[in-house]
Design goal:
GTP-binding protein, DUF465, DUF465_sf, elongated, about 75% helix, 4 helices, mainly alpha, about 80 residues
């Protein structure tokens, strides 16, 4: 199943903070940008439009989880 993992939808309680931090914190903006690019890549692979192996997809998913954890940690610390 293909599904985007949109941060604004998954963490509605941080929606305003997420937008503001992206606007004012270049490091945080870069982190979220990497997360979004990686999520887009995973969705593309899951849609079946490109060949991939399970190991690659698993590695990308784990990386996405780590990025999401870092983002949430920074939002909770704010």
């Amino acid at each position: 199943m293909t599904a985007e993992h949109d941060l604004h939808k998954e963490f509605r309680q941080f929606a305003d903070e997420l937008t503001e931090r992206r606007r004012t914190d270049p490091g945080f903006d870069g982190l979220v940008g990497r997360y979004q690019s990686l999520d887009k890549r995973i969705v593309e692979l899951e849609s079946g439009n490109q060949p991939f192996d399970d190991e690659t997809l698993g590695r990308l998913r784990r990386e996405r989880v780590l990025l999401k954890d870092k983002i949430v940690q920074q939002l909770e610390e704010a």
